[in-house]
C-alpha cells in the first residue's frame, strides 16, 4: 500500500534531480563556449596587432589604504593599581 507510493516518489525525485543536473551541465557548456569564442576573438585581434581594451565593468578599483593613528590613553589611566581582591 505504501510501497508503490514511496517508489513513485523516489522515482520522481531522481528524475527531477537528473533533469536539473543535465540543465546545469548544459548551461555550463553554453557559458564555456561563449567564453572560449571571446578568447579566440581576442587572440585573433592580438595576433593582428591590436590591443584589447578592458571594459570598465571588469576593472576593479582598489581603495587607498587608510592610515589610523592609535588612540593613546593618559598615563593616569594606564598605570592604575589593582586591588588585591580583584586580582585574586
Largest sheet, if any?
Answer: none
The tally of beta strands, per DSSP, is 0
Strand content: under 5%
Spell out the helices and strands N to C.
HHH
Secondary structural class = mainly alpha
Rg (C-alpha, Å): 32 Å
Distance between the termini: 71 Å
Overall shape: flat
**What is the average of the pLDDT values?**
82
Please mark out the parts with pLDDT under 50 across 5 or more consecutive residues, or reply none: none
Helical amount: 55-70%
Q: How many helices does DSSP assign?
A: 3
Overview of this protein structure:
The protein has a domain at 2-62. It has helices spanning 2-47, 75-78, 84-87. The chain is flat, with a radius of gyration of 32 Å. The protein has 88 residues and is mostly helical. 61% of the residues lie in helices and 0% in strands. The mean pLDDT is 82.
Q: Which labels suit this protein?
A:
3 helices, flat
Topology:
Blueprint: H1 2-47, H2 75-78, H3 84-87
Write a short abstract of this structure.
With 88 residues, the chain is mostly helical.
Amino acid at each position: 500500500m505504501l510501497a508503490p507510493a514511496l517508489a513513485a516518489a523516489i522515482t520522481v525525485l531522481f528524475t527531477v534531480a537528473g533533469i536539473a543536473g543535465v540543465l546545469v551541465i548544459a548551461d555550463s557548456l553554453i557559458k564555456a563556449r561563449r567564453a572560449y569564442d571571446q578568447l579566440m576573438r581576442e587572440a585573433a585581434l592580438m595576433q593582428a596587432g591590436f590591443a584589447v581594451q578592458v571594459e570598465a565593468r571588469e576593472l576593479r578599483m582598489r581603495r587607498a589604504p587608510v592610515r589610523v593613528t592609535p588612540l593613546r590613553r593618559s598615563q593616569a589611566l594606564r598605570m592604575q593599581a589593582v586591588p588585591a581582591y580583584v586580582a585574586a
